[in-house]
Amino acid sequence: MSFSIRKSTLFISQLKSKMGLLGLPKQNSWSSSTYFHREAQVDQNFRYPDASFNGKATFLSSRRFESTKAQESLNILTDPDKNQVLDFPGGKLKLTPEMRFISETPCERAHCYRVLDDDGKPIMGSTFVQVHEDVAVKMYSNMVTLQTMDSIFYEAQRQGRISFYVTTVGEEAINIASAAALTIDDLIFPQYREPGVLLWRGFTLQEFANQLFGNKDDYGKGRQMPAHYGSNKLNYITVASTVATQLSHAVGAAYSLRMDKKYACAVTYFGDGGSSEGDFHAALNFAAVAEAPVIFICRNNGWAISTPTSDQFRSDGVVVKGRAYGVRSIRVDGNDALAMYSAVHTAREMAITKQRPILIEALTYRTGHHSTSDDSTKYRSADEIKWWRVAQEPVAKFRKWIEGNGWWNDEAEIQIRDSARQQILHAIQVAEKVEKPPTADIFTDVYDVLPFNLREQEQLLKETIKKHPQDYQQNVPV
């Protein structure tokens, strides 16, 4: 028996020499030690960042630590001082006699992943996912179309032709580049500043105009605010005005995709202001615990309407909040279309193949007003807006890159801008002439059989319109 105990002790000593404090293999016993240390970075050893995640063990995966109670006798036998480690649910904790608080601020801010410099040239040593010529040209064409669409629809609102509009000026790269990195099977849960994702998926300019004018061809039957688009066919969930409620919806949908074993993920967008909502925190924790394949994309444009980020939170932006909930995260230059494409492309592969949520904080700047109901010069300087429009304009930066590759020229630029303008103006003219949905549509699509109180309201509305026709549009069927 004493011989057996000595052999067991020798075996345990050899085993411990191969293991770290939390029972993890030492780095020199694995062929790739960079994977664990670069959770929020694109692997520098690969031209294709997602290659670094293929077929590798995930050391601190979202899987739960195994209970260590079964190892109690082993710990007593091998630990020279068992008081140095606390066997707590979730994993062992190293104990310390020193009272030391975790600092509220890091020594260094989280880095921001970038590929293109201010002149649209790849930064030396940058790693990114290769984009083929046809995809790159389509990305740029869509960015120009989105930019033109914003300009014309904004003016249409100022002319009183539509009641409300939200622009994406300065955020075109986040819209188009992220959409290009996804597939049509991925479910989109947008806020109200992602029409470019819908544009990429094939939503026509006429469909945009129909929604803005709320005519009978609008899929929402005129019941939504303008710029609150949606498309079942394109897996784009209808926009809601409420802030951040879409985040938990996306997690639930992602969990459903996982249960059905679909090779797809859910993607949800929100602004920096959305991270102040309880839905944000609940959604991240929900996603981490449920191991849901969902990508959270935060458009940190510096302003939640008129509230600066300095009044939103004291943390280092939004990216650091991911680690607190066990969500792998990365900060990206949102004005760099190539960096945005690469980050989302890689995040999608991780989300689906590793069954984990990913948080992307895209740093950008909203150079337009928050909406047509806002005047941003009341809370920020015109010089600040001008600098971002000139120095960090995402459309111009991406154009320099495709021109440098020989994929674009001045003639193509004139053609796409003229074509987009003509198509949008035509779409407006058509949408204006289409009659509005009948008033009865206000009360449909909720109940199978309309209850008495709603029938009463519908009758009252019809009588009011007939009595005061001057207060209602003439092209609304009663």
Fold and architecture overview:
- It is found in: Mitochondrion matrix.
- InterPro entries: Alpha-ketoacid_DH_E1_comp (IPR050771), DH_E1 (IPR001017), THDP-binding (IPR029061).
- It catalyses: N(6)-[(R)-lipoyl]-L-lysyl-[protein] + 3-methyl-2-oxobutanoate + H(+) = N(6)-[(R)-S(8)-2-methylpropanoyldihydrolipoyl]-L-lysyl-[protein] + CO2.
- Residues 142-437 form the Dehydrogenase E1 component domain.
- This protein is of the alpha/beta class and 478 residues long.
- It folds into three domains: 64-94, no CATH class; 133-433, 3-Layer(aba) Sandwich (Rossmann fold); 439-471.
- The chain has 15 helices and nine strands.
- It has helices at residues 2-17, 34-37, 72-78, 133-158, 172-180, 195-201, 205-213, 245-259, 278-290, 320-325, 337-353, 382-391, 394-404, 410-433, 452-467, and strands spanning 85-88, 91-94, 187-189, 266-271, 294-300, 303-304, 307-308, 328-333, 358-363.
- A five-stranded parallel sheet has the order 3-4-5-9-8, sandwiched between helices. A two-stranded antiparallel sheet has the order 1-2.
- It starts with a helix and ends in an 11-residue tail after the last helix.
- The model is unreliable at 1-12, 15-71 and 73-77 (pLDDT under 50).
